[in-house]
Specification:
heterotrimer; A mainly alpha (560); B alpha/beta (416); C mainly alpha (362); A: mainly alpha; ABC transporter involved in vitamin B12 uptake, BtuC; 3 domains; two-stranded antiparallel sheet; C: 362 residues; mainly alpha
Chain lengths: 560, 416, 362
């Protein structure tokens, strides 16, 4: 094997290993270790380390020669294990615990597999090598194997990690479903039999589906890639919409939160994705919607009126539009990064005022406003999370329709012109002021709606709910999902809001992964997970005189 | 395009079809008939007790302490109750409203949740308790002290809420009493940090202080992340109060303490902190300024606590390698005992060994159970106040965080 | 990023339009001026503070201002060279603070901190600078360099990502508890001149800060690398054509900024005596405001902006918020900093010293 290939594999392995060391020092590995995937055999922490090594192997195996590829994969995996082994040695020799609180004896036990230093290090490096081999093998072997093994591993992981959730969902059913549940799960996680069963079923399904596709392809019965995507998306959407009715109120709650962020994402999408106005003070509109609803419906001394929710919601949305316009007025002349900071300042100002004693007589101060009633349709109160989820779904549907129509209207095109170059747009006769104010106002309307539902969901509003973090979250989910695209907002929301909610026990490190994901996404796929058609067309046309593409302006992405 | 229409349509249909609400209605299962519902625990399945505490972030010590106390209670029962294993499903509610909402929903959606212990924070308990009670689940709170939760005019959705911890009405009154009668302060300035707990507590204290004839010169506020207290303290110095009362959290409290010592004009002003400053973390954050600092906290000395308290502390040390890290472990332990006693009394089994628990019966039994807990006698009034409150004021004696020990550092100086 | 095209098109002179927007902006100006003036008059009438107390506030404002100035320098240099706001700069300050904290605590335990303050302080600052500079360079290499070509939001989002990542990494490594910076006696002492109290610490921090900033200024003005840096800041393409290695200059800039951030971190923890993972966020934001205030891209501007912001923060709430009769005015003090920032961004984006950079496409 050539020298460069050797060095490359080693470098990749060491880099991945350094990443694993970072995770260990930060405490992620130990935390993951507390969670067993397969009871008695495999914990999430060990699985994470194995996956990292496998990833190293996957990346290193590039050679067309299978033997060489496998060898480089193995080498990369072993190189990945080396830094961790070094860390283990360091922990046992030097009392690093005094400085780095995560390097505890428990971590040492885990890393050495309870076998002591030397044996532990050997196990680490050898298991790294094996994992690297598997990773390389996956990349080099025929697709059939890959289609079988990967779904199998994914299924085991999913069923293991989400075991609590799945058990919760299945709890409601006795009978055959109950039998299955008892078979695959013990109270802590998957049983070994359950794990093998999951793996087998998923592998079977994956391989089978692969064969089916091949057969259909041969007969030219498969729809084109674009239609495939739409089909998959449509199915997924319907499944998600029906899930809470089937799976219970916890899923409903989580999906409702996702829905609220989708609403906000669509609003910010208008401002950032279409009009190119980087607004970091978005949470202010959310707060306005929530507080307006609270003040108009609550059964509390602060309330200004006691309207029904349905009367208060339009008022909240209108108020949000007004505030949006007022927001936009001072910052009309500010551009780019400065706009980001200016709007951030405005958002913070709203937050400080809402929390202050100064505004307490009106807004309730630190105690917030409590006793907000739930909406009611005639005799039925929409009190459960499932009911409110469907309300959110409905509102999102309406909002999506509005957003989609706006995007394809004259106003939408004016916004896009604005985003690309303000001066040229003005020269073309677009009224910048009207355009920008409309962008702020309409974006704020979506956020106000979301805030309104939020208030009634919690039955209370506390000022601490309106931190800068929410604006950052919404911006992140648009970026990751794909700016300017509505399906992108849904995907981004599911990934960045839904997933962390379900994985609450790992919540301590949520923002660590956020940060890492943001950086990685920007490097690998800056146009987002589901970029908009317009964006793809724009990039494809290779129009380089358009300066600012608010999103990626890499060379056009290959059609998938 | 079709996608979006489909979505809108789905939403419409679903909303039209929607008449579901979590049904709590009279139910008969096995030998038990109950107005709200009956939980059936199959033979050998665990009795699931939900837990909701703050288990991450800067206030972790408080939540973790309580969770451990409950775990000790379960261990002392042998991990079993009525031949069924006891399982604690502890969740992290992050000490805020959204967290409380999510945890409440999660626990309520599990049909096997018998009872819930927690939360650690009033802002989490406020949305959580109604959600749980809507599913018929009683919530015994272990360190949420907001007065509104057990006020006589509380809403019916809080009917299932009880707590073994005191109400801030008592704490505020006690603090005012100490200020007026013990150190004879004539004037006070209060500081809160924008959290509902601090704001409410200082308000109660100020009202009581005024009622006792004292003067409240001003009620100030800061943000919890503020580091620069000089302007605020200079202003307070110009008002020349006898006492500054600040029931805020660790970081801000430490800054106020340190900077007050450096502010000219405040040399003779007393400083009194609240319960959130009762931890080893605070000693660490405040440094040498902490010596001689007073905090108001419920009495945890052996004379005031129940008889079983010292044994509990020993157990705790054995199990976790350190002394209790915060102050509400006693309340949590007693809540666990209260819950298990009530379950024992109410549960009925059938011939096959399955257990049946009536929800309303459980609630009534919880509210009717009396016993001597380790934090004092436990007896619930009709609105859910089950604990007894004994005020005390403690003084820190050393700036070494490792010497944090209840009763020694800080040591009790009032009541004598 | 079109450096040559868009920004040169003629714009309609704004002054000739009397419209809703113009009125709104004038209204904003008047409102702010009124608040400041009425508040100040109110405070002076109340005459709550003595001269000594005002002096205290000013002194403290200078101290915190010097720290802001140092942090702002990092922002302004990176922006000048890369046209990018390094949102993670606050976290770099925090990393320097943590490094300094560990060294200082070690010295404190062994008693050396009290016995020989000078060498130990030097060691503390050295370690802090080393740490912060390495982290800054790492961030540049991994997260910023790939985006130098592309404009748009990618660098900004990456900066956010780095900020989150660093914060949470430090949180995972060192925990959420607030650490206490050692407080030896020589720090607590104070001079007493003419009845005014001047703490040693304040003098130390301000003096050293001025020294370091002077050093930085000399580096930028007098050395070859500094001149190259200024060239790149003015026109990157022309500088490249003149044979300047842009990569090296960027690394140099980040190193300088990172070093200043590390020093600022040590000073910050000396003054406020608290070190924890979130401590860099708000000062970072405010220091960015200071940089904008002084004129982003201008080094004297950043220094001046920092001092100005520090003074406004320290004296402001007592000066005008207090006089307006607002209950609990100190809760609103962040308001002052943010309002100042927004006013600057709206009405004078080039700041006090800067060129017209804000109107160009970022």
């Amino acid at each position: 094997m050539s020298n460069t290939a050797l060095r490359r594999s080693a470098a990749i392995g060491l880099a991945f290993g350094a990443g694993a060391v970072h995770l260990a020092v930060v405490g992620v590995i130990l935390m993951l270790h507390q969670r067993a995937i397969i009871v008695g055999s495999l914990t999430l922490g060990q699985a994470a380390l194995l996956l990292i090594a496998a990833g190293a192997g996957l990346m290193a195996a590039r050679s067309p020669n299978v033997g060489e590829g496998l060898l480089s994969g193995m080498l990369a995996g072993a190189a990945c294990g080396l830094p961790i082994a070094a860390l283990t040695m360091l922990i046992s020799l030097v009392p690093l615990r005094l400085i780095f609180i995560a390097l505890s004896p428990a971590l040492f036990d885990m890393l050495s597999f309870g076998q002591g230093l030397a044996a532990g290090m050997a196990i680490l490096i050898s298991s790294g090598a094996i994992a690297g081999l598997v990773g390389a093998g996956l990349r080099l072997r025929p697709p059939t194997l890959r289609r079988a093994v990967v779904p199998g591993i994914v299924a085991v992981l999913v069923f293991g990690v989400f075991q609590e959730l799945i058990q919760l969902m299945l709890q409601r059913y006795e009978g055959i479903v109950g039998e299955i549940r008892d078979f695959i799960y013990s109270w802590e996680g998957l049983t070994p039999e359950g794990a093998t069963a999951c793996f087998a079923v998923a592998a079977f399904w994956g391989a089978g589906w692969g064969f089916l596709r091949q057969a259909l392809d041969a007969r030219e019965l498969m729809p084109g890639p674009k239609h495939q995507r739409m089909l998959r998306a449509g199915l997924a959407l319907v499944a998600l919409a029906l899930l809470p009715a089937v799976a219970g109120s916890y899923i409903g709650q989580v999906l409702m939160l996702v829905g609220l962020y989708i609403l906000m994402g669509m609003g910010l999408n208008l401002e950032v994705g279409l009009a190119g106005l980087l607004d970091l003070g978005f949470v202010a509109f959310f707060a306005v919607g929530a507080y307006a609803t609270a003040l108009l419906t609550a059964d509390a001394p602060h309330a200004l009126a006691h309207l029904s929710y349905w009367a208060a919601m339009p008022v909240a949305v209108l108020l949000a539009i007004v505030v949006g316009v007022l927001f936009g007025l001072p910052v009309l002349g500010v551009r780019g990064d400065y706009l980001a900071v200016a709007t951030l300042g405005l958002g913070e100002i709203v937050r400080v005022i809402v929390m202050s004693d100064f505004a307490a007589p009106l807004l309730g101060g630190a105690q917030g406003i409590l006793q907000i009633p739930k909406p009611s349709l005639g005799a039925v109160t929409l009190g459960t999370p499932v009911a409110l989820f469907y309300l959110t779904l409905f509102c999102s549907g309406v909002a999506a329709l509005v957003a989609w129509r706006l995007e394809n209207s004259r106003l939408g095109r004016a916004w896009m012109a604005l985003r690309d170059d303000e001066d040229v747009a003005q020269a073309l006769g677009i009224n910048l002021i009207r355009c920008k104010l409309l962008a702020y106002g309409l974006g704020a309307a979506f956020a106000g709606l979301a805030g309104s539902i939020f208030a009634t969901m919690l039955s209370s509003v506390y000022p601490s709910s309106f931190q800068l973090l929410i604006s950052a979250n919404v911006l992140a989910l648009i970026i990751i999902g794909g700016m300017g695209s509505l399906p992108g907002v849904v995907i981004g929301s599911l990934a960045l809001i839904g997933l962390p909610e379900l994985l609450r026990e790992f919540g301590e490190y949520r923002y660590l992964f956020y940060g890492a994901v943001l950086i990685v996404m920007m490097r690998l796929r800056p146009e987002g997970l589901w970029p908009s058609e317009v964006r793809r067309r724009e990039l494809h046309a290779g129009d380089e005189t358009l300066a600012l593409a608010a999103g990626g302006n890499q060379l056009p992405a290959v059609q998938r | 395009m079709t996608k979006r229409f489909c979505r809108g349509l789905t939403g419409l249909l679903a909303t039209a079809l929607l008449t579901i609400s979590v049904a709590v209605a009279e139910q008969t299962l096995g030998p038990v008939t109950d107005e709200i519902g009956v939980i059936r625990i199959p033979k050998g399945a665990p009795i699931q007790i939900g837990g909701s505490w703050v288990l991450s972030g800067p206030d972790t010590a408080s939540g973790l302490d309580q969770k451990r106390a409950v775990e000790i209670a379960i261990k002392q029962l042998g991990g079993k109750l009525l031949d069924h294993p006891l399982k604690l499903n502890a969740e992290d509610d992050l000490c805020n409203a959204e967290g409380g909402q999510t945890v409440g929903t999660k626990l309520a959606s599990n049909p096997q949740t018998v009872i819930v212990l927690g939360s650690a924070c009033s802002s989490a308990a406020t949305p959580e308790a109604p959600i749980l009670w809507q599913a018929g689940i009683v919530d015994i709170c272990t360190s949420c002290t907001a007065p509104s939760l057990t006020a006589p005019n509380r809403k019916p959705e809080y009917a299932g809420f009880a707590r073994t911890v005191y109400s801030d009405i008592e704490q505020g009154k006690a603090d005012a009493t100490y200020a007026r009668e013990e150190i004879k302060a004539k004037s006070v300035v209060t500081i809160h940090d924008g959290s509902p707990y601090a704001q409410q507590l200082q308000q109660v204290m100020a009202d009581n202080f005024k009622a006792m004839g004292g003067a409240v010169l001003s009620q100030e506020a800061i943000a919890p992340t503020d580091v620069d207290m000089h302007p605020l303290l200079t202003r307070i110095a110009s008002e020349k109060p006898d006492l500054i009362y600040f029931p805020v959290f660790t970081a801000a409290g430490a800054q106020i303490l340190r900077q007050a010592k450096e502010t000219p004009g405040l040399e003779h002003t007393g400083l009194l902190g609240g319960g959130a400053l009762f931890s080893a973390d605070f000693i660490e954050a405040a440094g040498p300024a902490v010596i001689g600092f007073l905090v108001a906290y419920p009495d945890l000395s052996p004379e005031a606590m129940g008889k079983g308290y010292p044994d509990f502390v020993e157990e705790y040390k054995k199990a976790y390698g350190e002394a209790p890290i915060s102050g509400n472990h006693g309340n949590a332990y007693d809540a666990a005992i209260l819950a298990t006693k009530a379950i024992e009394q109410v549960a009925k089994s059938d011939a096959a060994g399955n257990l049946y628990i009536g929800k309303k019966a459980l609630r009534d039994t919880v509210f009717a159970t009396k016993f001597d807990g380790i934090s004092g006698p436990i007896a619930c009034d009709p609105y859910g106040e089950c604990g007894e409150f004994h005020p005390s004021v403690l003084e820190y004696t050393s700036a070494d965080p490792k010497t944090f020990a209840i009763g020694k550092n800080p040591k009790k100086i009032w009541p004598k | 990023m079109s450096l040559l095209a868009a920004a040169r098109l003629p714009r309609f002179p704004a002054a000739s339009r009397i419209d809703a927007v113009g009125i709104a902006l004038w209204g904003l100006r008047i409102a702010v001026v009124l608040v400041v003036v009425i508040g100040t008059i109110g405070s002076l009438i109340k005459a709550r503070y003595t001269g000594a107390q005002w002096f205290d506030l000013v002194m403290f404002g200078l101290t915190i201002g010097s720290i802001y100035a140092q942090i702002a320098l990092g922002y302004t240099m990176v922006y000048g060279v890369l046209r990018m706001i390094n949102f993670a700069h606050g976290e770099i300050v925090m990393s320097g603070a943590f490094a300094g904290y560990f060294v200082a605590t070690a010295f404190d335990h062994s008693g050396l901190l009290t016995q020989s303050p000078l060498p130990t302080m030097a060691a503390v600052v050295a370690v802090a600078v080393l740490t912060s500079t390495s982290i800054a360079l790492l961030a540049e290499r991994i997260a910023y360099r790939p985006f130098r070509r592309s404009g748009g939001l990618a660098p900004l989002i990456c900066a956010f990502g780095v900020s989150f990542f660093l914060q949470q990494t430090f949180r995972g490594m060192f925990g959420t508890a607030v650490r206490s910076y050692p407080d030896p006696l020589w720090q607590r002492a104070a001079f007493h001149i003419f009845g005014y109290t001047v703490p040693h610490l304040d003098v130390l921090v301000v003096g050293l800060a001025l020294l370091f900033m002077l050093a930085l200024y000399l580096i930028v003005q007098r050395t070859r690398m500094g001149t190259a840096m200024r060239a790149v800041a003015e026109d990157a393409e022309a500088a490249a054509l003149m044979g300047i290695d842009i990569n090296k200059i960027v690394v140099f800039t980040f190193a300088l900024g990172g070093a200043m951030a590390g020093i600022a971190g040590v000073f910050y923890s000396m003054v406020y005596k608290q070190v924890y993972f979130f401590m860099g966020f708000t000062p970072g934001l405010k220091a960015f405001g200071a940089a904008v205030l002084g004129g982003i891209g201008s080094i004297p501007g950043a220094m001046l902006g920092g001092f100005f912001l520090g003074m406004v923060e320290s004296v402001g709430p007592s000066l005008f918020l207090d006089g307006l009769g607002i209950p609990a005015p100190y809760q609103l003090r962040d308001l002052i900093a943010f309002t100042l920032l927004i006013m600057v961004l709206i009405f004078r984006p080039q700041g006090i010293f800067g060129e017209r950079m804000a109107k160009r496409r970022a």
